[in-house]
Amino acid sequence: MHEFRYVNGKLYCENVSIEALVKEHGTPLYVYSQKTLTHHFQALDGALAPLPHMVCYSVKANSNASVLRCLANLGSGFDVVSEGELRRVSGAGGDPRTCVFAGVGKTVAEIEYAMGQGIFAFTVESEAELERINRVAARQKVKAPVAIRVNPNVDAMTHPKITTGTYSNKFGIPFEEVEAVYARARKLKNVGLRGLHMHIGSQLTEVKPFEQAVRKVAPLVERLVPKYGLDFFSIGGGLGIVYESALASGDPAWWKTDAAKDILTAESFGAALVPLLKPLGLRILVEPGRFISGNAGILVTRVEYVKPIGSKNFIIVDAGMNDLIRPALYGAKHEIVPVVRKSGPEISSDVVGPVCETSDTFCSDRPLPKVGEGDFLAIMSTGAYGFSMTSTYNSRPLPAEVMVNGRLAALVRFRQYLPRIWEAEKLPRWLKFHRLPPTVD
Ligand code: LLP
What we know:
Elements: E1 4-7, E2 10-13, E3 16-17, H1 18-25, E4 29-33, H2 34-47, E5 53-58, H3 65-73, E6 77-80, H4 83-91, E7 99-101, H5 108-116, E8 121-124, H6 127-140, E9 144-151, E10 173-174, H7 178-185, E11 191-197, H8 208-228, E12 232-234, H9 266-277, E13 283-286, H10 290-293, E14 297-309, E15 312-317, H11 326-330, E16 336-338, E17 346-352, E18 361-369, E19 376-379, E20 400-405, E21 408-413, H12 429-432
Parallel strand pairs: 4-20, 5-6, 5-13, 6-7, 7-8, 8-9, 9-10, 9-11, 11-12, 12-13, 15-17
Antiparallel strand pairs: 1-2, 2-3, 4-14, 14-15, 14-19, 16-19, 17-18, 20-21
The structure holds ligand LLP.
């Protein structure tokens, strides 16, 4: 469910016309719907209501301060993976005491900072990290709250680049070794064993792999609890969203169609997992990123040129792979729609950006309405891993972001001022003071 729809042939986010937003803020432009963010958070929170639980939004999906503030206001906790993300959460009004800190490469400085902030728990990914956390905690004379991340070796049946819970991934501690690690961890004086964590992958569109992983890990949790007094079990994030019928899925009626019947929803997730988790009697944590923000955002781009070559029709737009890397990196398919609906036959088209790489392609051979210079297209479902994965490749400034709430719209990030891209660079002395004459043959 989301809040992007056509009204009289024009695309709207909630009650705000996308055309009006691009007129004011230009393109490429990310537009977020606060109602959609709220809806997804509340749906998941509600589905887990029968359990003591905490929804920890995964900041990496979309870390704009307004997104974080909106979720903090709703009572969300946060899943962070760097000092930067933790600082963002605090800066946006979130509470560090609701934060879990994951990631295989936490530095000493990051551990020191997070500990000082009193985070909820570290998700520990190796024994070496456990020892490092123990050393830092000893120096600070505190006991660090930790959860060990178990790698359950369950295939999440998702894209290989976003699978995390099998033994060919770098994450967590193999299932069979976890109990021995807890036994050794107990001897570390400055580590407090608080929970167990797992996360098997991202963009899981079925509930089955979650169920499978929980069924496999629940008996382990039952063995660990009496020994170590754990008080939470985090089942990670990974809930998938609809990409291919993104626009249609904004319509409640679509959810009653055949196409929607096997799609993961907060309700089906809760219905399958609550009965498995409830008997554990622990607080359950979930760390959704994409599920909350994915369908809540679009990337709006302007058509610059239309270039037919052979049998191809290239629509060249002003957003590039630096603004949205998912299609180039994962072959992700985002629905693309015109901001103003067009009549007439569709043309098989490739929507491509201006970056000098063939992978700078948002879609290939896709039937799209005939568009021309100055038309706007919306790349749907880009609220997660869209802006947060941008770069300035080709020295292109980072795009602007807007948040919509009902009839209100606000710029929540300025388009990057071009010189900011190179402002941190400096010349070494030997280049600064010597200007070689140009070589001419
Ligand atoms: N918890 C942990 C420990 C994670 O590693 C992740 C994501 C999440 C939670 C949130 O996962 P989500 O609910 O958003 O699926 N850039 C990729 C996705 C990378 C996910 C990395 N870890 C993409 O654009 O598809």
